[in-house]
Amino acid sequence: MKKINGVIKAQQFDKETIDKIFTTASEMEVSPPKDLMKHKIMATLFYEPSTRTRLSFEIAMNKLGGSVVGTENAREFSSAAKGESLEDTIRIIAQYGVDIIVLRYNQEGGAERAQKFSEVPVINAGDGTGQHPTQALLDLYTIEKHFGSIDGLKLAMVGDLTNGRTVRSLSYFLGKHYPIKQVYFVSPKQTKMKNDIKDYFDKYHIKWEELDELDPIIGDIDVIYQTRVQKERFKDNPKIYEEVINASEKLIIDEGCVNKMKSNAIVMHPLPRVTEISYNVDHDRRAMYFQQAQNGLFIRMALLKLILAE
Amino acid sequence: MKKINGVIKAQQFDKETIDKIFTTASEMEVSPPKDLMKHKIMATLFYEPSTRTRLSFEIAMNKLGGSVVGTENAREFSSAAKGESLEDTIRIIAQYGVDIIVLRYNQEGGAERAQKFSEVPVINAGDGTGQHPTQALLDLYTIEKHFGSIDGLKLAMVGDLTNGRTVRSLSYFLGKHYPIKQVYFVSPKQTKMKNDIKDYFDKYHIKWEELDELDPIIGDIDVIYQTRVQKERFKDNPKIYEEVINASEKLIIDEGCVNKMKSNAIVMHPLPRVTEISYNVDHDRRAMYFQQAQNGLFIRMALLKLILAE
Amino acid sequence: MKKINGVIKAQQFDKETIDKIFTTASEMEVSPPKDLMKHKIMATLFYEPSTRTRLSFEIAMNKLGGSVVGTENAREFSSAAKGESLEDTIRIIAQYGVDIIVLRYNQEGGAERAQKFSEVPVINAGDGTGQHPTQALLDLYTIEKHFGSIDGLKLAMVGDLTNGRTVRSLSYFLGKHYPIKQVYFVSPKQTKMKNDIKDYFDKYHIKWEELDELDPIIGDIDVIYQTRVQKERFKDNPKIYEEVINASEKLIIDEGCVNKMKSNAIVMHPLPRVTEISYNVDHDRRAMYFQQAQNGLFIRMALLKLILAE
């Protein structure tokens, strides 16, 4: 396996590396080495707020005995009066002697630019409409952990498939590395999956189908990956937003819906949820979204180990 | 004593538990166990800013060797675009593997809701107009520490008694657990103590009296608990606010006023103060408000010990 | 050497103390004692955001094994509704048992006021238009580290010399303690160095000269200290701002300019830079500004050692 020198995008990982990350994540779950990151420092630089993601990285570092410095306010570096480039900021923070930088940036490509100017590893914690590779890894880990193997499964991706970053990143991983049996894109007609992902699945000979309701497939699928409507992307189209919300109503996962699923199936969601999964589903053992969030912690601990302590 | 599983409201504590908290706080003051919280993590989730309270909890955790992650910006979880419920947020943060959550919420009942969905203990650091139980504990601790016993004392609660959260919480503790001799409610007529607290004192046979000046009692009382006018509660009533401010002028504690007090009496204040205690009182040994703030540290360290290490 | 009890202003240091700080900084660079600050706590109270400075202090503390609590939001203490004085805030935070307070305040004199009311040492991390003494120390350290000695050098201070805080603080150190050979003030005519600094250099018999371009001296100087135009100070004078920006264009340090410098000369900048140093200069070995930022870390580690562990 190649040494991991940072996490910039999903495509950087080969199958061997992904397997190693998952094995390490399992170890983290069972017996985390409590002083592995002793005397090591993580800097979390968030150019847009994402408290949950930030806390997940910071807790991962703390659980391994490391320290954290950071800011929820990294835009201040590039504020009007001061106007510093991302490159300069990263270079300085790296030279301050931190061991790793976790970057959330508001524009696609931020992590890649940062890595070029950083003396220390950079982890991409989301860059605008670009990638959020640790999210994709934890999604995949959640599926593999539950089913033992991802091969041969039937997945339904549900909701706002046009704007959801997570379903896109997950698709890249699935298409390239896992011979799944079937993907269903279930969405309102206004928020269909884009063609690039469909072409991608075609290239890897993975069957896909588009639907606008769950009923025909609900009893047959292994994984529902539900997503919320990305309201912030419809700012200029309140009418279309309203249509999408209306069309999404029949895609809500509620108790009745879950009861039609196979007993071993799972419901995933990248969170936060709004109304697209009913609260009365939470107690069903098929509800996997809180464990999925927790798996993010193990994945991030594993990455810290593989980047800084291997 | 029952194990403390979290701190939600003042009423949860019996006398034995309060005594145990105070004994433990004294130990913390003398010789804090510097590695007691090693490898333990506190999450501070503040839905409204309260920097002093947050720092007090975080320092308490640090002094015992634990780590802290947190946000002053917890409202972002429930921001318009994302709209996550408090329950979901708490559940996720708890599952990230922190050992305790300190929550400041902007609505009454927040801590109680949080505790229901958290796998780990929750400490209420203030919930809207509701409770702030660690403040009440530190107030009580301050009195007991100074006088040896609270029984038989005469207290004056002064200022904005209608809106002040701290005097109300303190009253609940006093009425139920301590046979004090007399309470004076000293306030402008617009901000009198509400009837529920008066009824409560009646129920426990504690004498109370209302005044609008300090002079008749100043030489006779053991404790003055001064409070600031909660300006933010008068937003819609600027005229009444002005009346209250005017009527409060004769309730200002200054050097002359303190000099009339018994030599062993004390002046308390939950801080921040504005003008209701003159700066020239600070050097008088009866000025207890800075020590009172410091006692908050010891109380919070004690609670961490009793919740996480007993 | 006198014990350092805090860092309030540049003038507090005698030559012996400065030398000791620099020796200690060198040690920090080579082999930082990783547990020197174990069980010690730093509070960073920033009344205005300065993420780079805050992170530099926090990383310094972390690298020595200490903990940090803090806020980017310290203004909340003195918010309209609450209105607490700086003195009260400092007193309370000090009594919470932190070991040192790093203060960024929005008005000149803040650090000095704070030190009077603090039981623990205070470090001034910038107070309005006042001082930023650790910046001046790191500037000086950068020059001495590179040249071995500061005596006899020729320096050019370039840019917005009227409003730049760093060139002024550096001048105080240089004039008093170091027999440099010559200072050039190179600036647009609208942003000349003020007379107090010129008088100060006269008093210490240090030659100075004013220019509005670099060309006549570029091949002869040892140090260029470039600064950015402090845009925020020209809010009420957009026309003058434009003139300054235009006149600053010929003061930009680019590749051609650096190539005319002596091979051992250095280019410094307190950062952030905007356009006043071209990015193509970064790879030249005379570009010293990133190392200069890094030196800030060593200086801050040295100060922590000298204040808290000597």
Describe the model.
3 copies of one chain form a homotrimer. In chain A, the strands form 2 sheets. A 5-stranded parallel beta sheet of chain A has the order 7-6-5-8-9, with helices on one face. Chain A has a 4-stranded parallel beta sheet with strand order 2-1-3-4, with helices on both faces. The model of chain A has no long low-confidence stretch (mean pLDDT 94). Chain A is 39% helix and 14% strand. The first copy, chain A, folds into 2 domains: 32-128, Rossmann fold, CATH 3.40.50; 133-290, Aspartate/ornithine carbamoyltransferase (Rossmann fold, 3-Layer(aba) Sandwich), CATH 3.40.50. The relative contact order of chain A is 0.15. Chain A has 310 residues and is of the alpha/beta class. In chain A, helix 5 packs across helix 6 (165-177), helix 5 (133-147) crosses helix 10 (289-308) and helix 6 runs parallel beside helix 7. In chain A, helix 2 (51-63) links the parallel strand 1 (41-46) and strand 2. The longest helix of chain A has 20 residues, at 289-308. The interface between A and B is medium-sized, with 26 and 26 residues.
